[in-house]
Design a protein that fits this description.
The protein is α+β, with helices and mostly antiparallel strands. The chain is built from 16 helices and eight strands. The chain folds into three domains: 121 residues, Butyryl-Coa Dehydrogenase, subunit A, domain 1 (Orthogonal Bundle), CATH 1.10.540.10; 101 residues, Butyryl-CoA Dehydrogenase, subunit A, domain 2 (Beta Barrel); 128 residues, Butyryl-CoA Dehydrogenase, subunit A, domain 3 (Up-down Bundle). The protein has a four-stranded mixed sheet, covered by helices on one side. The chain has a four-stranded antiparallel sheet with strand order 2-3-7-6, with no helix packed on it. It starts with 5 loop residues before the first helix and ends with a helix.
């Protein structure tokens, strides 16, 4: 097994279980992910083998209530961060996988814990989250795109979602739909389920290797056994903190990767880069402060208080802002060598904007804070 460097050892937590996960995750990142990064970005390669290896390393399970005597969001965030230092596409797919597990194990559906949930936790089954539209709906930005009719034994769902990631014909993903009486339900769908059609229409400037599809539901069948919450009124407040906090893993890795790029060019360009107003040490200091806040929030992800959720939203906003700032400065520090087609700095800049626009995006987060202030 790959031996951690002193820096990686310091990044891993002190507990033996957490340290073991980080040791294994770092090995996967170094030996399996690093050689694929260019192909993931340039060719849209989906790193399926890496995703499954990360599951075997324990990257998707430690944050799951009911599966563990105690749940630990920090280990899952740190594992995601390690991958994101190299490749945000992989880090994002790990977030999708971890978020789906979070939904399942926060549900009262015990059958799903033992069947689908257990396989999501190990990476045996891969999956994603179709909650971008519902999360916007809950905060007054969009209308819900899926509706359903109650039938014997379940629901028939209609509508379409433009983009759902880390899915495919054999994957599972979560959705929210509206019943005829206006109540909303959350459930899981299978990529090849009855009435489900996946479409691939768009190409993105980055994160092409994330298996992102449009989802069409044409009287899609959702049996009661696949329902996570019906209705979602008390369930969404329970999962929203973890949903947002887990995204910190993408930002932490992105920022650290950009710090590393700035440090790498110091021997050749440090004499002129020192005149830039933002230095890698500045980002390292801010990253440490961000981690301290997020790790503190991870101790109580089911806190329903207004004050707690405001801190979560503020931390997520800073994560997006700092990711873009770090990538921007990595490009400035690297100069022309980062501006070529195969340059890491230009790739990180394209990837960083995703941290700022993935739901909840920077503009949504600012709206949420403004709404809280106005209430």
């Amino acid at each position: 097994m790959t031996v951690l460097t002193p820096i990686e050892s310091a990044r891993s937590a002190a507990s033996p279980a957490r340290a073991a996960v980080m040791q294994a995750v770092s090995g996967v990142a170094q030996t399996e992910l690093a050689p694929l990064v260019r192909a993931i970005d340039a060719e849209g390669l989906y790193p399926e083998g890496v995703m499954r290896a990360m599951g075997a390393a324990g990257a998707y399970r430690h944050h799951l209530p009911r599966l563990n005597e105690t749940f630990d969001l920090r280990t899952t965030i740190d594992a995601m961060s390690r991958a994101s230092e190299l490749c945000l596409s992989t880090g994002f797919c790990m977030w999708c996988q971890s978020a789906l597990g979070w939904y399942i194990f926060n549900s009262d559906n015990a059958e799903l814990h033992e069947t689908l949930g257990a396989k999501i936790a190990t990476g045996e089954v891969l999956g994603g989250t179709g909650l971008s539209n519902p999360m916007k709906t809950l905060f007054g930005i969009e209308k819900l795109k899926l509706s359903a009719t109650r039938v014997e034994g379940g629901y028939r769902v209609r509508g379409a979602l433009p983009w759902v990631s880390n899915i495919g014909p054999e994957a599972w993903f979560a959705v929210v739909f509206e019943r005829e009486d206006g109540k909303r339900v959350m459930a899981v769908l299978h990529g090849s389920g009855e009435g489900v059609k996946l479409t691939a229409n768009d190409h993105f400037v980055a994160l092409e290797g994330t298996r992102t599809y449009g989802v069409q539901c044409r009287d899609a069948w959702v049996p009661d056994a696949h329902v996570l919450a019906d209705p979602i009124d008390d369930y969404i407040p329970k999962i929203r903190g973890g949903f947002i906090l887990l995204q910190a893993g993408m930002a932490f890795g992105m920022i650290q990767g950009c710090i590393d790029l700035m440090e790498q060019v110091k021997p050749q360009l440090g004499h002129v880069n020192r005149h830039l107003p933002d230095q890698p040490e500045d980002f390292a200091e801010r990253l440490a402060a961000m981690k301290a806040e997020v790790y503190a929030l991870c101790e109580t992800p089911h806190d329903l208080s207004r004050e707690y959720f405001r801190r979560v939203v503020s931390a997520r906003l800073m994560a997006g802002d700092e990711s873009v700032a770090a990538a921007h400065n990595a490009m400035l520090h690297c100069g022309a060598r980062g501006y070529v087609t195969g340059g890491d700095a230009q790739r990180r800049l394209r990837e960083a904007y995703f941290v700022a626009i993935v739901t909840p995006a920077t503009k949504q987060l600012r709206k949420m804070l403004a709404d809280m202030d106005a209430a």
